[in-house]
Design brief:
659 residues, Glutaredoxin, Rossmann fold, 5 domains, 9-stranded mixed beta sheet, 23 helices
């Protein structure tokens, strides 16, 4: 690729637009593990066999982990369609039936979340699915009924009725979506079938009494390009994702200090967990007198079950790189590092390629876009230790030393990598930056709460129906995330608790599910935001075992440098193990609280200071379970746990039913 100029980027901004027809295969680590590479190969084989000119593209993940492998199809005259759980056999059917015959496949379509409140043009496809939790699925009955009504009116050739895989609406009875508009009806009854066909399909009128008026709770800023572009293609990023337009604006069109001012207006806080204002970190680093400054992207994601940073790096590496370059310019840095977990080979590969492509295009290196600003970046692999996610340990690891924390102050913004001022931002923070620069800090601040602005990405896993990546405005409740976006608890069991913040976080019981998610509210509940892990637990989960699991992880990952963490964590683990075996005593609970307090106050770094959180939060909300283990052993404790979960569920149901 030739060296790009400001004029080149201005020309690309005017040319942006995707092709008319394509098939996209989502090839992140999760998709590949589920067989997406084989699906890609079969799609290509059948396409070539049928001598079609249809591009088959590699893209990152849109986040629907529950449906991997995911394939998206766009054909002329048809709406964009997402398919989930695709096999090589189904890949062939997609080409033959969807692409050639313009017919959707039953059972695999994921309904669009771009739902509309009005019908624009004729209805060509109808998606149907019973979303209720009642026994006896009514999907096929309603498909048959709609087909019969379509046939009676002579519309068989014009309108197809398809059983959907997922509607994005849950526990709302039978749901029907009209394509291509995306108008969605819920709680559809048998007597509504004729009305839908007569009024909406034939008459082009929306049935207000059935209309699902809730908009998609997700707002995609960090994930805006995930699943939309080829992560291995700079050209795709430039043409279809406003790639490097934000960098051009900062380097060529605006005065110095513009990026920091917009970030201050946006209210963006560090998405690695601490929540420190990003603009302030950049300002502090840039204000230090030094002959060299550094910027580091912390991609050492180590929380069990978390995959937010991995997915962004694999799906949209150039946006993170662009955010890093903008950060470097704002602070006067000439060198940057991506510190990426070594267990993420696909992320490392794609970031390496992005760096090489940007360097070849003159977007990294000397005199970027003729602005006089020079900056370059390279990758360092994580040392395999959870503690290296801590800033000072991460710096030590990059320098080739053992990854263990150092006392603060001085903070890295004053004295960091090789004793020079250093700003460390996590992947999600940097991915936000280009969007904020282009659309403005005020635009970003429209989402969120007074103190926690913008959106947050969560990896929702555990006992949840649709495990996935979600990006929601700050202030969205836990209940909305678990039930409205992820479909509720697996097997329709009662929810018991949600754990946020990974090993450093805490459990939040079902009575607090309506709490708006923000840095402040989670801390008040005894948990933390963390980098964005969210684990859902049902009534069969033991809170004592959950606390023991996370504490064992922290004990294993402790660097051992300070006694409060090294000794305190081990002592607590021994006590929890004793309690879980039915050999504990009442004094053990007192001892746990005392050790937790000591670790919080005296540990050197965040790992030791927050490791007690799972223990303290389970004691705070589920102390009866600890007592049950002590008094009657594990089997008795399980009975108590289920009984308490059942009572909590009844109380919640009673509260919801009360006017």
């Amino acid at each position: 690729m030739k060296t790009l100029t400001k004029a080149d980027l201005e020309s690309l901004a005017r040319q942006q637009g995707e092709g008319k027809e394509w098939i996209r295969v989502q090839l992140d680590t999760g998709g590949i593990a589920a067989g997406a590479e084989t699906v890609f190969a079969e799609l290509s084989r059948v396409r070539d066999e049928m001598k079609l000119a249809l591009p088959i593209l590699r893209v990152g993940s849109v986040g629907y982990s529950f449906a991997d492998p995911v394939v998206e199809v766009k054909c002329a005259g048809m709406p964009r369609i997402l398919y989930g759980r695709i096999t090589p056999e189904l890949a062939g059917r997609i080409v033959r039936e969807h692409v050639v015959n313009k017919r959707l496949l039953d059972e695999y379509v994921i309904a669009t979340r771009r739902r509309s409140l009005k019908l624009d043009g004729p209805v060509t496809q109808i998606l149907v699915r019973d979303t209720g939790a009642d026994l006896g699925n009514k999907t096929e009955f309603f498909q048959f009924s709609l087909l019969e009504e379509i046939k009676r009116r002579g519309l068989t050739e014009r309108v197809q009725v398809v059983r959907a895989y997922d509607m994005g609406v849950y526990d709302e009875g039978v749901a029907v979506q009209l394509l291509p508009s995306g108008v969605t009806y819920v709680n559809v009854l048998a007597q509504d079938v004729a009305r839908i066909v007569a009024e909406s399909v034939v008459g082009g009128r929306v049935l207000d009494d059935l209309l699902w008026k809730e908009s998609d709770r997700q707002v995609r800023v960090v994930l805006r390009n995930c699943g939309e572009i080829d992560p291995d293609s700079l050209d795709d990023y430039l043409r279809n994702a406003q790639g490097y337009q934000a960098l051009k604006r900062v380097l060529c069109d605006e005065k110095p200090g513009f990026a920091i001012a917009e970030l201050k207006t946006s209210g963006l806080r560090g998405r690695g967990g601490a929540g420190f204002p990003t603009w302030m970190k950049w300002q502090l680093t840039g204000a230090q007198k030094a002959d060299q400054r550094y910027v580091i992207c912390n991609g050492d994601e180590g929380d069990p079950g978390a995959f937010m940073d991995r997915s962004v790096l694999e799906s949209d590496p150039h946006s993170v790189l662009e955010g890093m370059i903008i950060a470097a310019h704002a602070m006067g840095c000439s060198r940057g590092y991506f510190y990426i977990r070594a267990e993420y080979p696909k992320a490392v590969e794609r970031v390496e390629r992005a760096i090489a492509q940007a360097r070849a295009a003159g977007l990294l290196g000397d005199n970027i876009l003729g602005s006089g600003f020079s900056f370059d970046a390279k990758i360092r692999l994580g040392a395999g230790a959870f503690v290296c996610g801590e800033e000072t340990a991460l710096i030590a690891s990059i320098e080739g030393r053992r990854g263990s924390p150092s006392p603060r102050p001085p903070y890295p913004s004053v004295r960091g990598l090789w004793q020079k001022p250093t700003a460390i931002n996590n992947v999600e923070t940097l991915a936000n930056v280009p969007a904020i620069v282009l659309r403005g800090g005020a635009w970003y601040a429209q989402n969120g709460t007074e103190k926690s602005k913008g959106t947050k990405v969560f990896a929702v896993t555990g006992k949840v129906k649709n495990a996935q990546l979600v990006e929601v405005p700050m202030g969205t409740t836990l209940r909305q995330i678990v039930y409205d976006i992820c479909g509720g608890v697996l097997d329709d069991k009662d929810i018991k608790a949600v754990q946020t913040g990974g090993p450093s976080g805490g459990v939040i019981p079902d009575k607090h599910l309506d709490t708006p998610v923000s840095y402040e509210t989670l801390q008040q509940l005894g948990s933390i935001m963390g980098s964005g892990g969210m684990l859902v637990m049902d009534k069969n989960d033991s809170m004592v075992e959950v606390a023991k699991f996370y504490l064992r992880f922290c004990v294993d990952e402790s660097c051992g440098k300070c006694a409060p963490c090294r000794i305190g964590g081990y002592q607590m683990l021994q006590i929890l193990d004793r309690i879980s075996r039915g050999r504990g005593s009442a004094d053990d609970i007192t001892a746990l609280r005392r050790i937790c307090t000591a670790m919080q106050k005296a540990s050197l770094c965040g790992l030791g200071q927050t490791a007690p959180n799972p223990v303290l939060s389970t004691l705070r909300y589920f102390e009866e379970e600890y007592k049950a283990f002590i008094e009657g052993g594990p089997s008795y404790a399980r009975k108590i746990s289920r009984a308490q979960a059942g009572e909590a569920s009844k109380e919640t149901a009673k509260a919801v039913a009360t006017p």
